[in-house]
Every structure is written in structure tokens, then in C-alpha cells.
Amino acid sequence: MLELELETEGDTLALARSLAAALEGGDVIGLEGGLGAGKTTFTRGAVHGLGVSEDTAVTSPTFALLHQYEGRLPIAHADFYRLADEVELEELGVDELLDEGVVLFVEWGRKFPGMAGRMVLWVELEIVSDVARRARLHPRGVRGDAIISAVRTRLRS
Ligand SMILES: Nc1ncnc2c1ncn2[C@@H]1O[C@H](COP(=O)(O)OP(=O)(O)OP(=O)(O)O)[C@@H](O)[C@H]1O
Ligand SMILES: [Mg+2]
């Protein structure tokens, strides 16, 4: 586990960018934390870190449920908050997208155990103040370990 204090939104975006550099197609990143903790903001940093133009807005997939981007890898961003059940999850088509090699970011992924089991990394964000957050990165398996060590290396340099 890697725990970091993020003093500003810029710190959150910078952490997400360094994490993005280590991502590979098929990686699923779970984002946890209450409303407004910064899950979408973190994803925005990662999407831009994956080479999507800064001019491309990265917003909450609240209504569309799934947003897609094309960076150095194909990217999908889903929010399961409003998903009712596994049938709706299946209809989103994330399995097919993962087969195609997307990097997938999921907010509220804990809701569905099948999906939760596919996370290579959980990013847990906690609100400390208006502008500060605490991040805990929890790796799952070898991919998660590799991402965490890449982030550690970047933080040191
Ligand atoms: N250090 C920080 N990191 C991330 N966001 C921050 C930080 N400081 C302030 N913020 C603000 O907190 C808000 C986070 O909103 P965001 O939509 O990213 O949260 P979320 O976790 O996705 O919420 P939701 O559960 O509604 O989807 C934004 O308005 C952002 O500007
Ligand atoms: Mg969000």
C-alpha cells in the first residue's frame, strides 16, 4: 500500500499522471471515496497522462455511464453509482472493451464483486479539507505491484 498526502488538486492530477505512465491495456483501476473525494478528477489526470489532449474535457460519466477516450491506449471511464444490477453492467459492454485492450477506470466498482475482482489497483481517496486529500493506493496482484513501484520511482525522481 502506498499512502500519499495530496495538498491541492494539482497534486492529485500529478499523481494520476505518474500512475498513467505505468498503465497497460487491460488494467482496471478502481476509484473509491465519498462524493466529491476526487475520483473523477483523478481519472481526468490519468486520461491526460495517457496522452489525450488537455482540450478534451474529462467529466463524470454520470448519465452516459461510460466515457471513452483514445490516448496512447484506448481508455474507458465508468461510474457504477447508478447501475442497478449485473444485467445493466453487462449491457455497458466493459468485458468487450477489456478484450479490446482498454485501460478502464471505475468509480463505485465495489458494488459488483465480479468487477471488483478484476481491479489491479484500488485508488482510495479521502477528503481532508476543501483542497486536500489523502490517497491510498492498494495493489492487487503483479500488475498492481508493478504500477505502485513505477509510481514510487517517479515520486523519488
Ligand atoms: N486535492 C484535490 N483532489 C481532487 N479534487 C479536489 C482536490 N481539492 C479540491 N478538489 C475538488 O473536489 C471536487 C472533486 O470532484 P470529483 O467529481 O472529482 O469527485 P468524485 O469523487 O468523482 O465525486 P462523485 O462521487 O460525485 O463522482 C472537485 O470540485 C475538485 O475541484
Ligand atoms: Mg465522479
Show the helix and strand layout.
Blueprint: E1 2-6, H1 9-20, E2 28-32, H2 39-49, E3 66-70, E4 74-79, H3 86-92, H4 94-99, E5 103-107, H5 113-116, E6 121-127, E7 133-139, H6 141-156
Parallel strand pairs: 2-5, 2-6, 4-5
Antiparallel strand pairs: 1-7, 3-4, 6-7
Helix pairs in contact: 1-2
The structure holds adenosine-5'-triphosphate (ATP) and magnesium ion.
Residues 39-40, 60, 79, 107 line the site of magnesium ion.
Outline the low-pLDDT stretches.
none
- Class derived from helix and strand content: alpha/beta
Helicity range: 25-40%
Find the count of extended strands (DSSP E, 2+ residues).
Answer: 7
In CATH, what is the homologous superfamily?
P-loop containing nucleotide triphosphate hydrolases
Number of domains: 1
Strand line-up in the sheet with most strands: 1-7-6-2-5-4-3
**SS field, number of helical segments:** 6
Head-to-tail CA distance between termini:
20 Å
Tell me the CATH architecture: 3-Layer(aba) Sandwich
What oligomeric state do the depicted chains represent? single chain
- CATH class value: Alpha Beta
Mean pLDDT: 96
Shape: globular
Strand content: 25-35%
CATH topology: Rossmann fold
Summarize the main sheet: 7 strands, mixed
Which labels suit this protein?
alpha/beta, globular, binds magnesium ion, 36% helix, Rossmann fold, 157 residues, seven-stranded mixed β-sheet, binds adenosine-5'-triphosphate
Give structural notes.
The chain contains 6 helices and 7 strands, in the order βαβαββααβαββα. It is of the alpha/beta class. The chain has one domain (2-152): P-loop containing nucleotide triphosphate hydrolases (Rossmann fold, 3-Layer(aba) Sandwich), CATH 3.40.50. Strands 1-7-6-2-5-4-3 form a 7-stranded mixed β-sheet. Helix 1 crosses helix 2. The chain is globular and about 40 Å long. The model has no long low-confidence stretch (mean pLDDT 96). The protein binds adenosine-5'-triphosphate and magnesium ion.
